[in-house]
Amino acid sequence: MKQFIKKQGSNICFAVIVILLGIMPVLMSTGAMSTSMVLFLGKCIAFAVVAIGLDLIWGYTGILSLGHGLYFALGGYCMAMYLKLQETGGKITDFMQIGGLTELPLIWRPFQYLPVTLLLIVAVPGVVAFVIGYFIFKTRVKGVYFSIISQALTWAAYSIFIALSPYTNGNVGITEIKTIFGKIKGQANQGNLMLLFYVALVIMVFIYALSKFLVGRKFGKILIAIRDGENRTYFSGYKVSRYKTFIYVLSAVFAGIAGAVFVNFNGSITPSQMTISYSITMIIWVAVGGRGTIIGAVIGAFLINLCEYNLSSGSMVEIWQYIIGAVFCITILFFKGGIIGLVKEQIPAAVRRLKGKSSAETKTEVKQS
């Protein structure tokens, strides 16, 4: 039994999280849970999805991306453009008219159709990530240089979205939109909210299962080999750049899907979701939860955002960001395995030391007597 729990511990933990989340909409329908809390947990599900993708490239492959907010926002904008056009009946929006446009821009037209939109939510972040990843990894750029490039590209994309205000509504973004299932706010629309929540939950379960499948096979071992010794893996005959490009694209696709889910719960998307600070926040989720575990990314995303939800109001409103930053620094310095490493390794090691010390003291007392 102990061996089973040790081997399947992460999956059991994830199952518990899924069950607890599945209960929340039911509690909402009985009045025991507020609608706003269910909406917030829906956003956390989206954050957990993007965190899983980041764990694949950082925790398993050793690629520290500080620009995944870009892919999150791209997926979010794709979904928001479709939802906005559903409200306008396929006509131009108010901000387009203010920007001087007289007809629907060509770039917006594919988003009149749901199947095309769903395809683009995956394709747009995937294609952008492939173009970036192919040339960067082909030239064997890695480490801090890749992190700097990912930051620069994210900042460039942010500036472009701000500049193209007739098409993107600038720094205001696309706001006041319904979900893919219609309105979700208010007592009368709880059914739509429950449906949206469970769809998001299924997406998270699917992405978690896919990620665990990948890392549990030879593919996952190659990713770890790249992380621990890229040159050695390269000289062993593996096309390292192909593996890195593939996993980078996959993580970008996960981020795009997460952005699309987030928009439905948030009701808006703005360029602030693609800023460097937003991308660094995503890294904090993975680091605190425990990178290289998948489940750690999920736990970190929920834990940090729940802390933020409770700390970012009241007397802690001015210092909550410093608290989160301090938690991140302490984790990196003293608990490199995050929460998962603390539970699986450091606490058991401390218990063994205490037991060993206690046993040694007992033997000493016996000898003395």
Could you explain how this protein is built, in words?
The protein is mostly helical. 75% of the residues lie in helices and 0% in strands. It has helices at residues 2-30, 35-60, 68-88, 94-98, 114-138, 144-163, 165-168, 190-215, 218-228, 230-235, 240-266, 276-289, 295-311, 320-334, 338-368. Helix 1 (2-30) runs antiparallel to helix 8 (190-215), helix 2 (35-60) packs across helix 13 (295-311) and helix 12 crosses helix 13. The two termini are 40 Å apart.
Provide mean pLDDT, rounded: 88
Oligomeric composition of the shown chains: single chain
Helix content: over 70%
Report the count of strand segments.
0
Topology:
Layout: H1 2-30, H2 35-60, H3 68-88, H4 94-98, H5 114-138, H6 144-163, H7 165-168, H8 190-215, H9 218-228, H10 230-235, H11 240-266, H12 276-289, H13 295-311, H14 320-334, H15 338-368
Helix pairs in contact: 1-8, 2-8, 2-9, 2-11, 2-12, 2-13, 3-5, 3-11, 5-11, 12-13
